């Protein structure tokens, strides 16, 4: 088995699930990463829109731009940006998500491929990745950065959003070392490590931190919706229900113990 198909298998255990399951998370945008909560925000849909608007304020995409998204999940970001740009292409390792987004989000080219196997026939004005870098181990992260550099147009920009831990917290360092040991298909890092490595391949990196309370609110809302819809969700996939609840509980517990951050990293050459 190639290393890619092994990674795909492991990621699939987490993401490759019945699309209907996600209908019960109470969001049409189906964002599956930290959203941005404002005082008047009450749902994950509104919070996802806040997030995409913030991305667009940073990027200021134009109707002539060609965009590549890596790790497009259930397509929320594609849905937001597709009519604002000339072309939007999205690659994703998870087949269920690609099939669902392809059927439900017209005007976007969804490609079922791992970025490790992808060779685009063009360069892009923007490359976007929300919660995808975490799914690479050390050597793969280097490959990822090189690919970004190669696929970006000279005046283009890359936007990556990731959760990071605080290097000054001994507890967090230990927790993340433990997680990285068991986490076979990814690795948690500090913001400085990501920025240093992106700088090493020639990027200038600007960062904006999203306070961790946003991730806490995002997860609490998922949990709330899951509790409301638990009967139907368990009928669709009992183990997935249990696994997601356990994952959100673990993450929430980690976040109570220190200053994790979620950071938007914008890279240009
Ligand atoms: C945390 S989810 C985030 C999804 C989406 N970006 C969002 O914010 O809702 C990570 C996504 O990355 C995708 N992914 C993970 N590893 C990948 C790889 N090597 N190549 C392409 N997609 C990958 C997963 O299938 C999943 O859709």
SSE map:
Layout: H1 3-15, H2 44-59, E1 66-70, H3 76-81, E2 87-92, H4 95-104, E3 109-112, E4 124-130, H5 138-151, E5 152-164, H6 170-182, H7 191-200, E6 204-210, H8 213-228, H9 230-256, E7 261-268
Parallel strand pairs: 1-2, 1-4, 2-3, 4-5
Antiparallel strand pairs: 5-7, 6-7
The protein binds S-adenosylmethionine.
Residues 11, 15, 31-33, 70-73, 76, 91-94, 97, 114-116, 130-132, 135 line the site of S-adenosylmethionine.
CATH level-3 fold name: Rossmann fold
| Major beta sheet, strand line-up | 3-2-1-4-5-7-6
End-to-end C-alpha gap:
37 Å
Structural class: alpha/beta
List the total number of helices: 9
Mean pLDDT: 91
Oligomer: single chain
- What small molecules are bound in this structure? S-adenosylmethionine
Q: Globular, elongated, flat, extended or rod-shaped: what is the shape?
A: globular
Question: How would you name the CATH homologous superfamily?
Answer: Vaccinia Virus protein VP39
- Tell me the domain tally: 1
Number of strands: 7
Largest sheet: 7 strands, mixed
Q: Roughly what percent helix? A: 40-55%
The Rg value, from CA coordinates, equals: 18 Å
Index terms:
269 residues; single chain; alpha/beta; 7-stranded mixed sheet; Rossmann fold; 46% helix; 9 helices; binds S-adenosylmethionine
3D structure, described in words:
Helix 3 (76-81) links the parallel strand 1 and strand 2 (87-92). Helix 8 packs antiparallel against helix 9 (230-256). The protein has 9 helices and 7 strands. The mean pLDDT is 91. It has a single domain (3-268), classed as 3-Layer(aba) Sandwich (Rossmann fold). It is globular, with a radius of gyration of 18 Å. The chain has a 7-stranded mixed β-sheet, sandwiched between helices. The protein is an alpha/beta fold and 269 residues long. Residues 11, 15, 31-33, 70-73, 76, 91-94, 97, 114-116, 130-132, 135 line the site of S-adenosylmethionine.
